[in-house]
């Protein structure tokens, strides 16, 4: 073989040569760079968006072989005869020399570790539901449920804000004709809770994980822009000016009992939500009991940071160009925004009702904090309240519906999984 | 799935969420009622023994806590003696910062300016 032939082959196996074999790869690299810009320069949820965007970049660099969506398709198709697979998967099986006993697909995590790339290995934590649950443990260790315990009516506002999930689910089916499992995953964007959205989507519609996670985290970062116009539209200035009474103090005993009671009660009601809610409440118990400070510290710092790295890069990796660049991705982005707006509307409308029923003691603005983006949504309620009346301090009142929204979206996710999880 | 079925699932889902959180609300309220009752019982025991002699200032703050029923959903009213609300807000923030405790976990009963005797 001559030197020229060798150089020619080397050139053909380089990423630069392969890059121009499909223009969509270049588009995806540009999208990844735009997301990196939004995370690094515009500071849109940088802790997650930077990892997601970088995972997206790595997976779309031709020849990197870090993530193989076909392996995960085979994992989902476990137990299916090879002859019934799609043509694309059958040719993948043939090309990679997989031989299954009795021609029935059998793809295990062990096989994926053996033949997958680095991001395939990291993705096992998403697929098994490990990362979202561990993130929830950290969230629980960072959350103070005191405002919710001081004003239990907040729970109803957290429930009302889940309206966005079901409104988007309906639209996904009615307008865009998505299958029910995908529509449920799209709807959960309205819960404004990244780990819950990832957890549910990885189980119901793994092919749509990247656009759903990106939509959820992007809109969470945009809450200060998304919510205020709706808040001003649905409330009068007089309502926004309402000053609320100081919250009653909550005893330590109540704070310790709360996670235990919630876990027993909600997990008995909806067992499918146990991994998420159980971890959330375990983290909170670590924080509140006062005897496990080291564990609480680990859950909310070291563990949370490690899992965030794994979760964000592996979720980003699922945005492979030939699956991401579809019309469905655009529909998901649109439906995600609708879900957020309807969630805000749901919380505000119940807030207005509670304001009327309480004789004007409840500021309806705290209703919009029922979307569970903690603490961003509560901050927006505070800002809008202070804008109407500078002496208004709604932050602690809004934290109640805000943390109730976390529980509410987990319950909604548990319901959707129980119904559409097959 | 038909749109009608989707509507039914949506209504059912929203009802489940409301049902779960409503029951949680009831549980929290019951927890609060029983917790407060237990706390009252605990307080009633030393009261039956008789008042503990205390310095004048402490007695005053204790009486402040007992005067008048506490507003519902409130931690009570902060009494200010010769203190501007602005100064009181600053003092509370400083105390919270010094104690490294979130301000919502602290309860201030009264703030009184101590006037130094200029004759001494």
Summarize the structure.
Chain A has 422 residues and is mostly helical.
Characterization of the model:
With 422 residues, chain A is an all-alpha fold. Chain A has two domains: 68-106, no CATH class; 130-420, no CATH class. Chain A is built from 25 helices and no strands. Chain A has helices at residues 3-12, 15-19, 23-40, 46-59, 69-76, 87-95, 109-115, 118-127, 130-142, 146-150, 154-160, 163-174, 180-187, 194-204, 209-221, 223-234, 237-240, 252-269, 274-289, 293-300, 302-317, 321-324, 327-357, 376-388, 395-420. The longest helix of chain A is centred in the last third of the chain and has 31 residues, at 327-357. Chain B is mainly α and 120 residues long. Chain B has two domains: 1-50; 69-120, no CATH class. Helices cover 61% and strands 5% of the residues of chain B. A two-stranded parallel ribbon of chain B has the order 1-2. In chain B, helix 3 (85-99) links the parallel strand 1 (79-81) and strand 2 (110-112). Chain B is elongated. Chain A binds chain B through residues 144, 146-153, 155-156, 158-160, 162-163, 165-167, 169-170, 173-174, 179-180, 183, 245-249, 251, 253-254, 257-258, 261-262, 265-266, 269-270, 396, 404, 407-408, 411-412, 415-416, 419, and chain B through 1, 3, 6-7, 9-14, 16-18, 20-25, 27-29, 31-32, 35, 39, 70-76, 102, 104-105, 107.
Percent strand of chain A: under 5%
Cα radius of gyration of chain A in angstroms: 23 Å
Question: What is the count of DSSP helices of chain B, taking H or I runs of 4+ residues?
Answer: 3
For the largest interface, the chains and their residue counts are:
A-B, 51 and 37 residues
Mean pLDDT of chain B: 76
Oligomer: heterodimer
- What is the CA-based Rg of chain B, rounded? 24 Å
- Average pLDDT of chain A, rounded to a whole number, is 92
N-to-C order of helices and strands of chain B: HHEHE
Largest sheet of chain B: 2 strands, parallel
Contiguous low-pLDDT stretches of chain B (5 residues minimum) are: 57-67
Number of domains of chain A: 2
